[in-house]
Amino acid sequence: MNLTKNFIATAADGLYSDSGSKGLYLRVRRDGKSRTWFFKRQVNKIKKEISLGSAAVLPLSKARAKADHLRALSDSDFLAEVSGKKPTVELKQRTFEEVAAEFCDWNVKSGLWQELSKDHKLFLSRLRNHINPHIGSIPFDQVTPDDVARTLTAIWSRPHTMVRIRSMIRRIFNWGRAKGHSKHDNPATEDGPLQFLLPAVKPKIKNRGALAVQDVPGFMKALSEHLTGISFQCGFFAVLTATRSKTAREARWEQIDFENSNWVIPPSQLKIADNGPLVVPLAPQVVSFLKSLGPQSEGLIFPTNKGEIMTDTIFSRVPMELPGGDWLDRDQTLQREEPVRATMHGIARASFRTWSQDDLLGNDKRFDPRIAELCLHHKINDGYNGAYERNRSFIRRREMMEAWADFCLSAVDPSKDV
Questions:
Q1: Fewest 10 Å CB contacts: which of 28, 65, 150, 391?
Q2: Where are the beta strands (DSSP E) in 9-161?
Q3: For residue 339, what is the DSSP state?
Q4: Which of 188-202, 249-263, 330-344 has the highest mean pLDDT?
């Protein structure tokens, strides 16, 4: 019969099957004082039953749902339910590539990454180019420290990339183990067997090329004479504000406070978002430069012809395409015994930091190193990890940024507008 709520509450003692869910029964006893659900099923010609609970607590809809679940189980899993023992779950033999893809999806779904954001694309690119060709097809729980070592050794001459790949593999394995895809130790931990399988000679870290302090004015003079292209304009702006490529390329007109000569950068546009927003004091020369680009109220300051954000590749080519010099990093050229070209990142960041403490210019006496770190939006390291650091030293930062602009443009004809 098709059991109803009213019937369940008033039925006399007896056993009643529910036509709405095969195998579900209602048992009424003791003059209606006991009304219990149970499920019957025949396995290997033997009838088994399992109690589902009191009808006073478990409504009909939920009793049917439980019955549907039990009916869908295999014979072995149903017997395990009857005996009260959970069936043994066999470890799914996913490949490393499959688990890495799941980890990637988890980061997006949990909100740690925006889909197809820079972090997301970098992760996919590194998987495709550096990891999956070596260990992607291996079952996840069978990847060994030897496999990881082989992956890292292939990019040993690129230390920055190697360190990032090692960190990626380690994180994927930590996540995979947490999700039950492996019962083995993480093969990518630095203090495990991996440390004895990698080359004994540590790779030399190659810093990004920067200009010697004395070469910066010449570079900026050449740049000021070629401000027709957006990449050169953006590079000019990035150096004078000591900002990273991404931050400068994504600069927007609505972030510029002309009245107070400030550039207010939101955390999402910064490499270290945890440090909070950054207010960059704009030197008078920077304000004049921005105004020379034309009256704008919103949108990207340095858009491509399609109105999109300039790529880092285009931005990075500025030193290679700028006439007037080879623009080499003198120190690293001597160390490596080969020409090392200066990069936009190195000029805007490393050259600025070196200038801020240059003793030939007297800047080691003039400027506090802490102010330079704040200008670069670095976290101040102290005994409390910056927990009590609230003073952003804005006046001193403005003094430093104006002095930097004066130095950068010291070779430019002052009568020439930039």
A1: 391
A2: 14-17, 24-29, 34-43, 46-54
A3: -
A4: 249-263
